[in-house]
Structure formats: structure tokens, C-alpha cells
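User: Hey, quick favor. My workstation is busy. Could you predict this chain's structure for me?
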Amino acid sequence: MKDFIKKIICGIAIGVGCVLPGVSGGVIAISMGLYEKMITAIKQLFSAFKKNFMFLLPIGIGCAAGVVLTSNVLKLVIDQYESELFALFVGFVIGSFPSLFEETKKPGQKRFSVSNIAIMIIAFVLIILMEILDTNATAKAVGADAAGLTPLEAMISGAILSIGVVIPGLSSSFLLVYFGMYKPVLAAIAEIDVSVLFFAGIGFAVLGMLLILLMHFLLSRYHVKTYFGIIGVAAGTIALIIPNIAHHFSWVCILLLAVGIAVGLWQAKRRMKLQKKDVEISMPL
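Assistant: No problem, here it is.
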């Protein structure tokens, strides 16, 4: 039960990250050590259905709750304390870096090769370019028209949401803003508009599954290079969020940043300890 509740809380954080402008649900999942496990569990759902379903269920419940709360109750908090919330999320990501670099250690593979460093830099630059393409993304998100969505637009918006969940570092909210769908999607979630959410769910499931298959392939075939790309994306995401923190800076931001880093480091240390224990158990006597 304790683990179930913990996963629900992690799911809520991922859900908030999916909706909060500039934050990626995928990066939050990585910072909590759940990303690769989630990808594998979904990819292999029916090969060990009960085990994988019970792993994904609390995260899914939390994620849905996080999205709904962000669209309703948390929207009031975000309006008043956006910088503080950003600082907490940045802390989570920064605290996860040790475990991310730990994933780049593989026997027989050169860790800091030219190609790996190049992938990390390219990933960082691509995330920064997203902001350069639209420097007023957050402002547009606040001021966008909240008109309803057609079934096709709802499916497209759902597909866009899946990108931010599955691809670390890509913010669904930024992409929705580019297509003028941010406010309508937020309104549909807040009002639980079934006619919109049904088609959005179809788009989310279809593209999400395709992206999961892609990420599973990359992680299984190019594990080290993929994680260097993820590190670059995570660093780029932090670089994009920091100006938002500075815009409405308060000393509470520093406190929450420190809390986020401490929690992230604690989770990373605990995760690496568990992984080490698993390796020792699996080693032949």
C-alpha cells in the first residue's frame, strides 16, 4: 500500500508536468526513476499483464489526478506561485542528474565518446531552439481563446499530449500553444467534457503507443546514447524554465529549489542502491 500511494504521488507530479507550461512529464518521470520502467511495462503489458498493470495503475491514477488538479484547483496555485512551482520541478530534475549519468555506464562501451557528447549537445540545442521559435509561449497559453475543439482537433491535441509524456524534454503545453489548443484542452479537462476527452484519448493512445515502441527500441539498442540525449534534453528544459523563475523570483524559490534537489538526490541514491542490490541478487554464486 505504501508503494502504491508513493506511485500515485509520483503520477500526480508527472500529470502536473504534462500541463504546466514549459515542463515535460517525461523529464519528471525520469527524475523519479520511473520513465524506463513505464516504457518497458507498457511495451510488455500483455506478456506479464498483472505485474505490469499493477505497476502502471497507481501512476496512471496519479497522472490523471495531476492533470485534472492542474486544470482546476492547482490552476489557482500556479497563477499565484508559478515561479515557486517551477523552482521545485527544476530541483527534481537537477537532483536526478547523478542517476542519469549512472545510466550511461555500460561495460565495454566508451562513455564520453565524441558521438555521445555530440548527441547531448544537439539535444540541448534543439530544446533551446523550441523556445527561440516561440518566445511568448507561456503568454500565449494564458491568452489563448478557449473555444471548443472539433473531434479531429481533439485527437490531434491528445496526440500532442502523448509527445510530452513519452518524449522527455518536449513540453506538451508549448506544442499545444503552437497549434492554438492549450486553453481549449485545459477547459475540456477542467469541465470533464467527455465528447472532447474521448477523441483526445484516442489520439493520445495511438501516437503514444507508437512513441513508446520507438523509445523502447532506442533504450534497448542504443541505451547509452539515448541517455546522453535525455541528459541534453533535461539540461535544455532547465535552461528554458530558469528565466520563468527569475521573472517572479522570491526567496521561497531558493528554498523549494533546494528541497527539489534534495528529494531528487535522495531518490537517485535510493534507486541506485536498489539497482545495485538487484544486480547482486541476480549474480550467480
